[in-house]
Design goal:
The strands form 8 sheets. This protein has a 20-stranded antiparallel beta sheet, sandwiched between helices. The longest helix has 31 residues, at 441-471. The protein contains 26 helices and 36 strands. The chain is globular, with a radius of gyration of 32 Å. The chain is 33% helix and 23% strand. The protein starts with 5 loop residues before the first strand and ends in a 17-residue tail after the last strand. By secondary structure, it is α+β, with helices and mostly antiparallel strands. Helix 2 (118-135) packs antiparallel against helix 3 (140-149).
């Protein structure tokens, strides 16, 4: 950690602050501790930053390194050459997360400061690196090494992080869009089958049983007329995923929109597992560009285009193939030959090899290229692995089953026909055999080995970086570990494993050749398989999704069939029971609603029976089956109202809602099929309230638009005006067709007006996207959501952008002759560009790295606009339908409904 002729100091942070004239006065809080530090161990901007001049080194942490409370006794530990004065800078963050930090220069005078033993500063060093490891997953290997060097035991990872869950709104969108179903059914997060140490594989892989759940009987679901098929589906193996792009130009649109809109959103959630530039990385391997593909399409050389491969592990490395149906295959091959030749001539270390004439095979290797191109059954195919050539050639030759011959392909191509609605689109299919293979022993154990190899390679990279600086020697590798890696070669780009390659692109699972396993791997897989299989009651599932893309809209339609038994959708499926959402549900003809959530509710479902039982426990006034009056649909909607303009003009949304929440123009609308039973229910409910809370409300019967409604008004002295808000009043109406409940009298009155106006029959609304749950947000609701989501989005991107800063700062202090950003790209194989598109540079004034777009934790900068689609959409529709024991989820982002504008807030706008 420090040379023998160095001395060490440990000073309370509070002491440094007290000696400074610039320090703020915070008598209720320990000096230097931000109010946001409590419970904010994972936030980069909640803790102070400290820097010292070279060659001294500094750490900031607690003398209790494994305590995560915000109110800790923070200390500054310093190591410096004996007799050298230490000049430093301390930045104290503000409480609001927006204001700049207070800058406090300080000086440690060796003549007046008492030194300590090196062992005394070890807890502070551990605390310092432990917290950085939690903030910066990309730096964990380096920080683990630093902790061990400070005296931590090799297995002491107590400060390393567990990934935190997503925010509630993220979980909600995953639920409503069907994303939760994909995560549940694929279980791709459960890959790491623990292996204590490298062992010699002794058990044959063939002895392990894979997934044996039955397949869906597609004969019962097959259409009478066979659907139009994709010609390329006859070349794709039945056990590989497939994406079909319609028309071929949709491929370039999809990649560009992913990089511009999809990637930043995912990086705000998971900046490590979703690296930037994935599309460009694989196109570079294949030796082709989006521009070249566009030129071929414009020349008429591409009739259709599809992508397939071995597995979904694109971030770590996978084998892929791009299939191009063409009436001009020789022209394509000739163009590829020229493209490859130019690349080989320009780039050092890149080689082009050819076999046969112009129509033969091309291979481009070296410097990140691993391209293979050939002709197959009227198609030109580009792949990054020989394995894909072998599999596709066998399929094209009829030796193995093709995707086009599977029952699920025919079923889903009927549901999502070739060409869709005529617009650009992408169709993705994960067949039964594909998911079964991904969940089989070869792929699960192979993926687990890759994860462990990646962790080892990161640790070796950290040791290589540290070892070269300190002694000019490469670190020694444990012989057993080196053998498990297939040998280790030390290169300027980090350690290279003979078996697993390196970080940035690990050997694809299909190329590992897993044919034998260890006893530990076999036992771990069997445990995982038993738990996974227990989630399937009868049959296994394929997954399909169709995306339709236009410049100003995105539609998707997802099918997961069946759902896993323990699915998070189980309660909603049980609640819906036999009920479906009809065309009149939820006051569907109501044109002034800015948002609506509608759920199918079966009055005879187990959930409603439980609710009935609960009501009986309160008293028998509601009867044995109090909900027999329900038709089967419950809806919650928000009226267009001046309330939204007031909310828009409020500087604090949360505070405004707390003070004025009782004025929220919302209504609960429950369809009714029996007005008499509904009246009895309301009478029983009124009696129950009077018995349990006597004297709290008085009931007033009022009339509007020819119909009666009831006002529940608090009795004198019983009103709820906490926090300065309005008094709580409840209004409801028993319409012949529905029960309507609101906190606003005018909302109920408008509902009665609409009912009175329906002289020619009920007004049916537009068909929702789901039979059992629908969500629709109009322009005003989306504007409010954008204001809230925009703040969250910027905050999440800031935390993601700031995550590497601790690592870059530590490298700059330890290796002043190196460029930390270049080291991150060269050794860590991580593109050093922040999620908002900025670069990392050194801030001379604040002595820290920062993003050129978002600043640094102690001086935040910039706002990140939401992706264009979310920022400009005037309408969001989502829907869920349960069918065949599975789930169909549909969604649409796009322009607002034509002619529908806000009556009360036409100028309402949030950035």
């Amino acid at each position: 950690m420090a040379e023998p002729d160095w001395v060490h100091y440990q000073l309370p942070l509070a002491e440094i602050i007290r000696k400074s004239d610039a320090a703020p006065s915070e008598p209720e809080r320990p000096p230097g501790i931000s109010g946001r530090m409590t419970g904010a161990w994972d936030r980069a901007d909640a803790w102070p930053h400290v820097w010292v001049e070279e060659p001294a080194r500094v750490w900031l942490g607690s003398d209790q390194p494994h305590r995560r409370s915000g109110r800790v006794n923070l200390r500054v530990a310093v190591s410096a050459p004996r007799g050298l004065p230490v000049r430093g800078l301390l930045l104290l963050p503000g409480d609001d997360g927006q204001s700049e930090a207070v800058r406090i220069p300080f000086l440690i005078d060796p003549d007046s400061t008492e030194s300590v033993e090196q062992e005394a500063i070890r807890p502070v060093v551990e605390s310092h690196y432990g917290r950085l490891a939690r903030i910066s997953p990309v730096g964990q290997p380096w920080f683990r090494l630093r902790i061990r060097q400070a005296g931590e035991e090799a297995d002491g990872n107590r400060e390393l992080p567990r990934r935190s869950g997503h925010a509630p709104w993220e979980e909600s969108f995953a639920f409503f869009s069907g994303g939760r179903a994909i995560s549940e059914n694929l279980a791709l997060a459960d890959i790491d089958l623990w292996l204590p140490k490298p062992e010699e594989p002794t058990l044959p892989l063939s002895g392990l049983r894979g997934i044996t759940v039955e397949e869906v009987d597609w004969a019962e679901l097959a259409p009478d007329d066979p659907p139009a098929t994709d010609p390329l589906a006859r070349l794709i193996p039945a056990d590989q995923h497939a994406l079909f792009f319609e028309p071929p130009s949709a491929f370039a649109d999809f990649v560009r929109r992913w990089e511009k809109e999809g990637l930043p959103m995912l990086q705000s959630l998971d900046p490590v597992s979703v690296p930037p530039g994935l599309g460009e990385r694989y196109l570079r391997q294949l030796g082709v560009s989006l521009d070249a593909l566009g030129a071929w399409a414009e020349a008429g050389w591409i009739d259709s285009l599809a992508l397939t491969g071995g597995d979904p592990f694109f971030a770590g490395g996978t084998d892929v193939a791009l299939l191009i149906e063409s009436g001009h295959p020789r022209k394509l091959i000739a163009s590829l030959q020229a493209e490859y030749a130019g690349t080989a001539a320009r780039e050092k270390g890149v080689a082009l090899t050819e076999t046969g004439e112009t129509g033969g095979s091309l291979r481009l290797t070296g410097s990140g290229r691993r391209a293979l191109a050939w002709q197959e059954e009227g198609a030109v195919i580009l792949a990054n692995a020989d394995r894909q050539r072998d599999l596709i050639s066998q399929t094209g030759g009829g030796k193995t089953a093709a995707l086009a011959d599977t029952g699920e392909y025919r079923f889903f191509r009927t549901r999502y026909p070739v060409g869709g609605d005529g617009g650009p689109g992408v169709f993705l299919l994960l067949s039964d055999e594909t998911i079964r293979r991904w969940c089989g022993p070869e792929w699960r154990i192979g993926a687990s080995r890759r994860l462990r190899a990646a962790a080892v390679l990161r640790d070796l990279t950290a040791r290589q970086l540290d070892g070269k600086d300190r002694a000019g020697q490469l670190p020694e590798t444990d012989p057993a570990l080196a053998d498990w890696l297939g040998g280790v070669e030390w290169t300027p780009q980090g350690p290279l494993s003979g078996r697993y390659h390196r970080e940035g692109f690990l050997t694809p699972v299909g190329e590992l050749g897993v044919d034998s396993v260890t006893e530990a791997e076999a036992a771990a897989y069997q445990r995982w398989r038993d738990v996974y299989e227990s989630g399937w009651e009868e049959v296994f599932d394929p997954i399909a999704i169709r995306f339709d893309l236009t410049p100003d809209s995105l539609k998707f339609d997802l099918t997961v069939m069946p759902l896993i038994a323990s699915t998070a959708y189980g309660w909603l499926r049980e609640l819906a029971g036999e009920a479906v959402i009809g065309p009149y549900a939820g006051d569907a003809g109501h044109g002034d609603a800015i948002a609506r959530l509608t759920v199918a509710v079966d009055p005879n479902s187990e959930w409603m029976r439980m609710l009935s039982g609960w009501s009986q426990n309160l008293g028998g006034g509601l009867g044995a089956n109090p909900f027999r009056w329900m038709e089967g649909t419950v809806s919650l909607y928000l009226d267009d109202d001046p309330f939204w303009r007031e909310l828009a003009e409020s500087p604090e949304i949360d505070r405004f809602l707390q003070e004025h929440g009782t004025r929220l123009p919302a209504a609960l609308h429950v369809e009714s099929k029996d007005p008499i039973r509904l009246a009895l229910f309301l009478t029983g409910l009124r009696n129950l309230i009077q018995e349990t809370a006597p004297g709290t409300f008085r009931w007033e019967t009022r009339s509007h638009a020819g119909h009666s409604y009831v006002a529940m008004v608090p009795t004198a002295g019983r009103g709820d005006r906490r926090g300065g808000g309005e008094m709580l009043e409840i209004y409801y109406a028993a319409r012949p067709d529905a029960f309507v409940l609101s906190l606003r009298e005018d909302v109920v009155q408008r509902s009665l007006e609409r009912f009175a106006e329906e002289t020619t029959g009920k007004a049916a609304g537009a068909k929702g996207l789901g039979d059992h749950l629908t969500v629709e947000l109009g322009e005003t609701a989306l504007a409010l959501l954008r204001r809230t989501a925009g703040e969250v989005y910027t905050e999440r991107l800031r935390q993601a952008a700031w995550a590497p800063i601790g690592l870059l700062n530590d490298w700059k202090a330890r290796f002043p002759e190196r460029d930390p950003v270049e080291t991150l790209a060269t050794l860590w194989h991580i593109d050093p560009v922040c999620p908002a598109g900025g670069d990392y540079v050194w801030n001379v004034r604040d002595k820290t790295h920062e993003s050129t777009r978002l600043g640094h934790p102690w001086s935040p900068a910039g706002e990140v606009p939401l992706p264009d689609l979310l920022r400009e959409a005037g309408r969001l529709r989502l829907g869920l339908t349960f069918e065949h024991d599975g789930l169909r989820a549909a969604g649409e982002f796009g322009p607002g409904a034509e002619g529908k504008t806000s009556r009360f807030s036409p100028s309402l706008h949030w950035p």
